[in-house]
Amino acid sequence: MQTETILETHHLIKEFKGFVAVNGVSLKVKKGHIHALIGPNGAGKTTCFNLLTKFLTPNSGRIVFNGLDITQESSPQIARKGIIRSFQISAIFPKLSVLENVRIALQRSAGMSYHFWKPQSSLYHLHERAFELLEQVDLLAFAQTIGAELPYGRKRALEIATTLAMDPQLMLLDEPTQGMGLEDVARVTNLIKKVSAHRTILMVEHNMKVVASIADCISVLQRGQIIAEGSYTDVSQNPLVLDAYMGRADAQLEGAAHA
Asked: Which pLDDT score is estimated for 228?
């Protein structure tokens, strides 16, 4: 039985004053898969993410989520449908505790974002779910830690927890291991694999070892166009992909393939 498609794009185009950043991109993301979007710097990966989450509006093309055309919908409407995104730069509340960060995300999910006049005790019923999420991302021991005091890799884990609090059907992760040391990369990679159960993940990632170890399908962008798609083994041996990385990443691609 063929796996159901959760997200499709049809010939997406985005231009900026004559520069075509995304040029006819057609994606199919399968439900329950980890789908990676890779490519050299400036290939159009983050622009694609911005189009999917409506931070940008395409010049032409269509975006279909769960069979519904969402091309003209706003970012809040997209989020309410279950497409939730993280960013390259960690986006947590640095002066709040880890528990409070997750609780705020749960408040939004429960429609309680603007209940500022209510006592804090009215939010305690959210703690059970918050602790479940923290346990899921291995942050239970850090529940009372202030966000700014977390190590960088743990901040990324907290961001994933707040994303999970929104109960996403599709998680978009933008460079989840960027700037991390080896230990944190391994931890976050395992975490992404763990939370992918019963969810779909579309991720932009530069670390080829991460992509090789967890991606079910990979789309390779160059100059705003998809030049290859398939398993890691397939795309890492594709001459167009090797050319796109100009030799400098060939060793990285090959090394990751045999790691």
From this structure: 94
